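Researcher: Next entry in the queue.
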Amino acid sequence: MKTVIATSLAAVLAVGVALPAHAQISERTITVSNGIAEDHPVGDGVEVMRQCMTDATDGAWELNAFWSSALGDDLQATQALRSGTQEMVVTSTSPITGIEPALGVFDLPFLFANAEEADAVLDGEFGQYISDMMPDSQLVNLAWWENGFRNLTNSVRPVETLADFEGLRVRVMQNNIFLDTFQTLGANATPMAFGEVFTALETRAIDAQENPFVTIDTSQFFEVQDYLSVTNHAYTPFMVLFSKPIFDTYSEEEQQILIDCAVEGRDVQRQASRELSEQSLQRVIDAGMAVNELSEEAMAEIREATAAVYDRHAEEIGEETVERMLATLEDIRN
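Model: Structure for this entry, 334 residues:
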């Protein structure tokens, strides 16, 4: 009997030693939403994140994705995270500057020269500085993904100089910095929800819009626009946001799985975004859009014209945030 008891006790102890590896992982169904279609590079990132979660939890977690604003637009979804009624959203920073004004720093015109600069800023100390602000708004930023550089399309003329912006009726996001930027360039900037843009272009209620190549392609703007000018006037990142009220109920091990899987998804999503961006540019050219790049002299004049936008919005963004961003970029460039 003593031998049996000793053997049983040893078995229990062995199980007890083995359990802690997954003892803090519960079965969970996690909802993630976003405003774009599943064939966008965000879909690649979400799929990697799903597989990562499955592997890390031995199948205890299920990640359910909802696309094309099926659960509401990005701002509505983000508010659901804050109230703890939804777990996750992949959203651009621009729609949620009303929640955290510091995010407006990414809307400043001609901020990043290339994707490498953006990666260095977002994955470094500055990106963490912004992420550290989010819990005050009941949000946790798990990782920075990519929306990409925004470019201008229109149905009037190629935009090759500052003067070519004059009078263009350009749809912009409902965002003060974008509105100010295009008004400063001489355009007639019109705030409009994205879902209304195609029809407004088709009926010529507006002349122009601005978005990354992938969005221009997948939204088929080439059907109602003749010219694409490679302005790269703004780089807008995606944030993989998680509800802090729900995050706080997770064990430390579970929280780390969320972060690790979002970062794993980030690397694939960015690569897919950049590859698809080049493919999208070629598709719109093949569809008949005339594409032009601007000369260095023209870009210098345009950047100089919009420099005042930084000063006008520094207070609402936060002067420290703007100064940190510019100092970080200077360090990277040096």
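Model: The longest helix spans residues 252-286.
Researcher: Noted, moving on.
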